[in-house]
Amino acid sequence: MIPREVCRRVLGKAVSTGADYAEIFAENTENHTISMIANKVESANDSTIAGAAIRVYKGLRSVMATTIDTSESGLIRCAEKAAEALGQGSAQIDIVLRERLFGDIHPIRIVPTTVSNKEKAEILKRGYFAAKEYNDAISQVTGTLLDVDHKILIANSEGLYTQDRQIRTRMRISAVAEENGETQTGGCAPGRRMGLEMFDAIDPREVGLHAAKQAMTMVKAGYCPAGVMPVAIDNGFGGVIFHEACGHSLEASAVAYNQSQFAGKLGQQIANPKVTAIDDGTIPGAWGSINIDDEGHPAQRNVLIENGILKSYMIDKFNGRRMGMESTGNSRRESYAYTPTSRMTNTYIAPGNDKNEDIIASMEYGLYAKEMGGGSVNPVTGEFNFAVNEGYLVRNGKICEPVRGASLVGTGSEILQNIDMVGTELDMGQGMCGSSSGSIPTNVGQPMIRVSSITVGGR
Known about the structure:
The chain is an alpha+beta fold. 20% of the residues lie in helices and 42% in strands.
């Protein structure tokens, strides 16, 4: 995108007022979305994001400037603005850029930008009509097919010059069921760090059927009773509990400023010994995977918690300075317009030794959360509140009637201690995580777990 010699001159200008580090992040991203509603393709939208950010450090001070003009003159002007904002001074750093190739662990077989909208629409229709035709009570279905081709370049004053290309594909089907004046929704939204070959492994019809079945189940459900009880949380997107309630509190953006419930607790037991939690950006084809992070560090497999002991945080370069620790390959940003910071990739609780049937059988009375929804968390206190999209009461060790309106309320530190059973069948769910550096793709996952005691909110 930007020649190496141009980057060298721009970085030289960026450090000219005394910065001890400078970085260029440039991107060119193509987004394509096809949407369906009312039995027809409603829209096919294309958008492009292109620009660059120049960031400079001096000790623990950081300044970033952005531009859509990626010509040499435009980048020089941007570098001058960043340098001037950092302060008055002078410096000369002999910058020698050497290209580094990190390789690609996510080979793409069908690049979506080379496929016609007609072909993409046919894929989407299979999922859409599977949901629409499932039951006469399905009153509305919406569907989208998204593909992203994200090209980035990173160069810095430490001599790094590298590029990466990240292609992702995702389908989302949402269904509304209406019965006896009640309406409920169901949804399914698988995504992968793949091209359209994703649909060799994921049947679009199954995506639509999942959404419709969930909507039909929940429209017939009564309201969930409230109270403190054991809860079994199923695998896949159930991992959003760890992601939100605990994962954000393990990011350096919170830890470095002592705004985390887990700050200063490395080496301490913060969870039940059955809990091992990992953030791994190196899983081939996974939605949250990367080859390099947005500061040019290679992706890593980071064990965050091992047998209940806090082993690591997720660290970006700048917050690593404050903490006196090295980057863990977790610096991420939505686009060049956002300042990068520590973020999760594919974060999950590792499989344990408990069988799913034993987890359910252990509960005399409680809740089985088959599928989790969204929620909110305060990383300082760890307090969270999550919706349960699909839930069932458990009586005498058996899954009984479906219930709606359930929510899980608690704190991250509390839930980690109360996870006392961990299943064997790991699965992942896909989401978009929003934080200070924007919205980024992340995977969440776990096997089925049992939380021995948690507050369940009802209607």
